[in-house]
Amino acid sequence: MAALQASLVSQLPATYLKALANRFSSTQLTDLTEENKKPLFVYGSLMFPSKIAFIIRDRNSADHIASTMTPAKLYDYERLAVRGASFPAVVKSGAVDTGDPMTEVDGLLIFDLTDAQRKYLDAYEGGLYNLMPVEVWVEVDDELGASKDGSVEKKRVVVGAEVYVWAGARDELIEVAEKVWDIDEYVDPRA
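^ that's the sequence the OP posted. Answer follows.
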């Protein structure tokens, strides 16, 4: 299993790995949220900067897009597979802060998208989703200090964002017990 995961990581685009590793300080995060409108939380194929660059018709911008992304977590939502498709959807879970990983969605937050770029992304989502305001948790690059066990604790902050939420019928989604959308399977269906 570890060998398979290592081989999948080597297949992942460098810009995606850059986005996953990217962290902002609290000051940078404040500046980014004040400079433009709400950032966009993405959780599926839009987590790949090269995919976004293709959609917004600027294939040379993937590296820049990756530099404006950071990992984030959306609570009280579920990421499910769309029946018969290779892309996921999120829906409100109905559960509140249960700590259940099925009611948390890991994704990336994108800052610095222009109005024109957002319009391309809206068109790409093709009416399958509604753009909804949410709050996401972001780990910032500010250390809180060492904990009792000597590990360094990181600070997390809440950021107002927007996310594309499934607009279709719930029965078009595959229930969690059957299948959760998995990024490794999106990259390599043999996973």
